[in-house]
Amino acid sequence: MNENPPKRMTSRGTALLIVLWAAVLAVLACSGCHAPVVVAKPQLFAEGELFLYLEPFPRDANRLDFTVAGVSAIKNDGTEIPLTLRLTEATPATMKWQRMLGSAILPGGRYSGLSFRIAGAGIKTDEGRMALLPPEKPVMIEFPFVVEPQKAVLVSLTLDEEASVSKRFSFSPVFKAEIPGRPLWGLTGFVTNKGANTIAVFDKREARVTEFIETGRAPAGIVFDQAARRAYVALSGDDAVEVIDLMADYSLTRIRLSIGDAPAELALTPDGRTLLVSNSGSNTLSFVDPASQSELARVIVGSRPGAVIVDRLGRTAYVLNTLSNSVSVVDIARRAVVATLPTETSPLWAQLNRRGDRLLVIHELSPYLVDIDLTTRSTAKRVYVGMGARTIKIDTSTDQIYIAKRGDSVIDVFDPFSLLPGNFITGGGSPSYLTIDGEHNNLLALLSGSKRLQFIGLVGKREVAQIDVGDEPYRVVVAGER
């Protein structure tokens, strides 16, 4: 029905666009176009990591602003170690939600507090903004904390505006410091930060990061086992899967795979008995037993396997092969590939509809969405969605389809019957991944460019909150995901 693109786009034009888009991606993958350079984080041995967050300004504190020139962690012996700042301008506009002030890799040991250098401050009055005198010397925040080797500590700061402003002409920040408590399991969300070797733990109801978990190298795909209260994380840089016990103080164990596997994505069968791992480096799919935490078998799939989608009965898995332009259909019980379905160029992500009889596939190098009929295992529709589709999410309560594209802050909402865009959501950036919190009816959009997670209410289709996460955020998962 919708196989043809808009009239202004000829088939020759589409082909040219694909070539141009491939060239753009190649340039970005190299070093041009001012693409951000992600420096590999060094492996931690005797060091730990500090993350410093500033809580949102109170609603009545919408007049104050200040500029942070520097923050240092103070060891018990008086040694000061500077943090890398992520936020320097604290204003009512930037402080509507929790923000990360900065972070640092620190030697393990005891610390007495923090030191702040303030470059400037101001307060809004009836006559306009009035400059406040900043403190001449660094401001000391007494707050003892311990940095453990190979672990992270998060310190949260809440500004006391009234105590920070003296006689309406000077500013010296007064903070209440604390280490946040862990959210209840049902309110927990995780974001894997591939460039930081960490997982950001957040409270999905409060939209607040509460702690970080140090992981192995390049954490990528992640799944929750809701029943066993575990998280499984693909460690692309360590050829392993990390297991996080959510009921045992987030203790870590590791499932070893083969050298060169570079595991990318994970999927768990509904009964929790089989964990599927796509190994992008060896073109295989691993079958892992979560109980014994061991690999049972593996099968060869296509070239550069990525996303793994499991049907609701846990019988069949669909593996997207990025370089083979195909989907491998895997019988989970038999541990065998039973069919290979063709796609457009570079299949990137896919979703099953509510009935589980259609697989919708988006592509990195094709402007088309492919709708595969799983009953006949053939393409039912080929729909033009535009170049640069990056992520797709189907709301299983409505079957509405959400598609985000590279470099576009608009999330298109497609009708499940006509497969035409009927609505849209304006986000806060270009989402690299989408999921839905079913309990709070929020669409969660991971904004890898700005290192943030955006919460969007599905009813009003408006932003609810944003939180800062880590470097190169890759995937987000929440309890009660839909």
TrEMBL record:
Give the top-rank taxon of the lineage listed in the UniProt record for this protein: Bacteria
Sorted alphabetically, the keyword list is: Signal
InterPro entries registered for this protein in UniProt: Haem_d1_sf, Host-pathogen_enzymatic-act, WD40/YVTN_repeat-like_dom_sf, YNCE-like_beta-prop, YVTN_b-propeller_repeat
Q: Where is the YNCE-like beta-propeller domain?
A: 226-301
UniProt KW Signal keyword:
yes
Q: Does the keyword Transmembrane helix apply?
A: no
Alphabetical list of NCBIfam families matching this protein: beta_rpt_yvtn
- What protein name is recorded for this chain? YVTN family beta-propeller domain-containing protein
Species name: Geobacter soli
